[in-house]
């Protein structure tokens, strides 16, 4: 495995994600002093020639305090109201600290749709790259005020990974309220031991990671290690570490081993394949037979003859999934047909396409060039 120092020396672009409990001092309200400490470290990283992108949680936790709720509400519109109010508090706190360190901050509130649509995805990417070129530090959060659960990214660990892939960052640092990832949730198990290093995506990690240990955070440890697995697809390694360690970012950047390093060991996917793999919600999928599974694993395109069924409603050009007959996702890619046409063509030989739909535009349902193989469940 690569040494920490080597990984950090090579890293130029770093995404730092900060969780709600850290930002709001365990839900008591925006922790201006802690923010100040992280921002001064961003400044240090910039002086070392590194680019920093921040993904900050905390809007809802801060809104809960500002609106005087005794505990986090459960009603969706109240949560959205908290997010709207709390985001003001976050922006204000960051703006103050960034200005004090002579840094320029920029706010981006993203939705799932911004990342699922190729054009909006590329727009977001170009805006972020322009900001980095101008030495501004983008601060990203999910736009919780306008979205419901069905269309959400859902947690900022995942958003951190999507951002890492979006800008081809080298490292994702997830600052949290624990020292790192333990063999079990240290809040419940006093014998849990810190894992200092592992391969991102290693299957054992998923069984050791639990949910959020408090009502302030959202994802817990599981979303963090899934985020590391997702970030590894673009070649980025992830560090899960306590944001309370003094000078944590500076010390990491000097190669010190702190928290849990989840090393990316896979070959990075191309940008377009990454975008397809990063889709969290798809409009449809097809179930394919064993012959088609073998063919696409060998690098062939998916032909209608291998398709057993087509589910959902999608348009030509949208990303759909391919499942095997056991229900495991094997690939996803851009469909050359709408769901309606794909249903008419399923099981048909290429020579029957014209007779079935009256024209031949493409013979493949998904061309190999527009397909990404999925190694294991997301
Ligand atoms: N294996 C584990 N190692 C460390 N923490 C774990 C583990 N499993 C579950 N957790 C819980 O995950 C929590 C961190 O996640 P979360 O509360 O969502 O924080 P954040 O707001 O930083 O995202 C920890 O406080 C801890 O209780
Ligand atoms: N977007 C939400 C944060 C959601 C979230 O993932 O929270 P956390 O687990 O604390 O990183 C907010 O700003 O309140």
Automatic annotation (TrEMBL):
Enzyme superclass (EC): transferase
ATP-binding found in the keyword field: yes
Pathway: Amino-acid biosynthesis; L-proline biosynthesis; L-glutamate 5-semialdehyde from L-glutamate: step 1/2
This protein's record includes keyword Cytoplasm: yes
Catalytic reaction annotation: L-glutamate + ATP = L-glutamyl 5-phosphate + ADP
Pfam family, one: AA_kinase
GO biological process: L-proline biosynthetic process
Compartments it resides in: Cytoplasm
Ranges where the PUA domain occurs: 284-366
Residues that hold substrate according to the record: 57, 144, 156
Signal sequence residues: none
Keyword annotations from UniProtKB, A to Z: Amino-acid biosynthesis, ATP-binding, Cytoplasm, Kinase, Nucleotide-binding, Proline biosynthesis, Transferase
GO cellular component terms, semicolon-separated: cytosol
Residues that coordinate or bind ATP: 17, 176-177
Record-listed E.C. numbers: 2.7.2.11
Function: Catalyzes the transfer of a phosphate group to glutamate to form L-glutamate 5-phosphate.
Similarity section: Belongs to the glutamate 5-kinase family.
Designated name of the protein: Glutamate 5-kinase
Organism: Turicimonas muris
Source lineage: Bacteria, Pseudomonadati, Pseudomonadota, Betaproteobacteria, Burkholderiales
């Amino acid at each position: 495995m690569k040494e920490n120092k080597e990984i950090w020396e090579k890293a130029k672009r770093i995404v730092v994600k900060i969780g709600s409990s850290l930002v709001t001092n365990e839900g008591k309200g925006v922790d201006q002093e802690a923010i100040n400490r992280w921002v001064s470290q961003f400044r240090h990283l910039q002086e070392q020639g590194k680019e920093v992108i921040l993904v900050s949680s905390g809007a809802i936790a801060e809104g809960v305090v500002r609106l005087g709720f005794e505990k986090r509400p459960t009603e969706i519109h109240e949560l959205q109201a908290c997010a709207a109010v709390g985001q003001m508090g976050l922006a204000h706190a960051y703006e103050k600290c960034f200005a004090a360190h002579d840094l320029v901050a920029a706010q981006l509130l993203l939705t799932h749709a911004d990342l699922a649509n190729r054009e909006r995805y590329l727009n977001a990417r170009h805006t972020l790259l322009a900001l980095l070129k101008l030495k501004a530090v983008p601060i990203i959060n999910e736009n919780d005020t306008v979205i419901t659960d069905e269309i959400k990214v859902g947690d900022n660990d995942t958003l951190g990974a999507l951002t890492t892939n979006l800008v081809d960052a080298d490292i994702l640092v997830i600052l949290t309220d624990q020292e790192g990832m333990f063999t079990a949730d240290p809040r419940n198990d006093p014998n849990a031991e810190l894992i200092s290093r592992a391969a991102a995506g290693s299957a054992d990690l998923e069984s050791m990671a639990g949910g959020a240990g408090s009502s302030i955070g959202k994802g817990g440890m599981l979303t963090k290690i899934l985020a590391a697995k997702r970030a590894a697809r673009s070649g980025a390694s992830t560090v899960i570490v306590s944001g309370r360690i003094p000078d944590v970012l500076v010390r990491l950047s000097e190669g010190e081993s702190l928290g849990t390093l989840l090393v990316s060991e896979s070959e990075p996917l191309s940008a377009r394949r990454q975008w397809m793999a990063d889709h969290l919600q798809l409009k449809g999928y097809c179930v394919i037979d064993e012959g088609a599974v073998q063919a696409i694993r060998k690098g062939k395109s998916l032909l209608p003859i291998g398709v057993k069924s087509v589910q959902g409603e999608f348009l030509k050009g949208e990303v759909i999934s391919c499942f095997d007959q056991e229900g495991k996702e094997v690939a996803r890619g851009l469909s050359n047909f709408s769901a309606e046409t794909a249903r008419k063509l399923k099981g048909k030989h290429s020579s029957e396409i014209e007779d079935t739909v009256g024209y031949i535009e493409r013979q493949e349902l998904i061309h190999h060039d527009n397909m990404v193989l999925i190694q294991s469940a997301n």
